[in-house]
Amino acid sequence: MSAGKGRKGSSTKRPMTQKQLADKLGLSTATVSLALRDSPMIAEETRKLVRDAMQKSGYVYNVAAASLRTGKTRIVGVSFHDIVHPFFAEMLASIEDSLSESGKAIFINNHGDDPERLRRFVEGLREHGADGLIVSPALGTDPEMLQLLRRAGAAIVFISRYLPGFDADFAGNADVLGMGIATRHLLSLGHKEIVMLGGLPGTTTGDNRLAGFRRAVIAEGLTWRDELHLPGAAKRIVGVELARQALSRTPRPTAFACFNDLVAFGAMNGIRAAGLVPGKDIAVVGIDDSQEAQACFPPLTTVSNHPGRIGAVAANLLLERLADPAAPFQHIAIEPVLTVRESCGSPGEN
């Protein structure tokens, strides 16, 4: 068999080009290009027509080639300090749902409150020409690092935490209000010896929730003492240790206002370890309203922060910033709601 005969029939089908797809649909290549980038300049009906035709024809949109033409890579970084926390996991799922619909590729980072790990991630985003970053900054984050990313053309949105003095969009909790609601609930039950467990000073969530706790205590006419707050990381094991420390005091606290649900779960374990009953001997309030808050025993009274809504808002802020870089910055805090369950009791019931 000759070489020529051996090659007969072995040619591969060349992939469809964007121009061929446009000709097939009777549209201009510019319209198809904008539709593939999900541009709001193109009607949703046309965008759907192009997407459906692309799938049927096997056309693959070459993002790398498009980025050379547009200067946009569709890459968005998402960085949290505790990505395995149920609150942030739900938030991430919401962000991914929103951004994936807009054709964004998401790079995820769990910096664990280590500013060096966050720095390396941000440098990687700069090297890849990322379009944006949604970030809950680490304790001790250098603002200049984020400024360099912004000067490279990336949009920045803070989520849950923010850096005071750094102008950027923000989506998160109304932390002062949320902790105030939790504390006032305990005060309304007659508790006077309340200790706040958890929260790291120097972070906006830690500082703002402490401010909400302190304001509620003072507004009740009680004397503020710094020992009413036991700081610590937002972890279950930390809640156990902080509860142990608080329960060793005289007079013994009658209630704990916890930085979040994880600290509250740990605190209830610490209460049991001391031979006491959470919800009967010691009232406990958390913040987050995670699924476990409903399933634990006793079910936890907690403030809902709506992580799914926060994630969706953050994603929308990023898309709006990419569409209009000169627009005024927005600071959006989701209003918290208290859900009363069985982990609180009045001193008369204790």
TrEMBL record:
<dbReference type="Pfam" id="PF00356">
    <property type="entry name" value="LacI"/>
</dbReference>
<dbReference type="InterPro" id="IPR010982">
    <property type="entry name" value="Lambda_DNA-bd_dom_sf"/>
</dbReference>
<keyword id="KW-0804">Transcription</keyword>
<dbReference type="GO" id="GO:0003700">
    <property type="term" value="F:DNA-binding transcription factor activity"/>
</dbReference>
<keyword id="KW-0805">Transcription regulation</keyword>
<feature type="region of interest" description="Disordered">
    <location>
        <begin position="1"/>
        <end position="22"/>
    </location>
</feature>
<protein>
    <submittedName>
        <fullName>DNA-binding LacI/PurR family transcriptional regulator</fullName>
    </submittedName>
</protein>
<feature type="compositionally biased region" description="Basic residues">
    <location>
        <begin position="1"/>
        <end position="11"/>
    </location>
</feature>
<dbReference type="Pfam" id="PF13377">
    <property type="entry name" value="Peripla_BP_3"/>
</dbReference>
<dbReference type="InterPro" id="IPR000843">
    <property type="entry name" value="HTH_LacI"/>
</dbReference>
<dbReference type="GO" id="GO:0000976">
    <property type="term" value="F:transcription cis-regulatory region binding"/>
</dbReference>
<dbReference type="InterPro" id="IPR046335">
    <property type="entry name" value="LacI/GalR-like_sensor"/>
</dbReference>
<dbReference type="InterPro" id="IPR028082">
    <property type="entry name" value="Peripla_BP_I"/>
</dbReference>
<keyword id="KW-0678">Repressor</keyword>
<feature type="domain" description="HTH lacI-type">
    <location>
        <begin position="16"/>
        <end position="70"/>
    </location>
</feature>
<keyword id="KW-0238">DNA-binding</keyword>
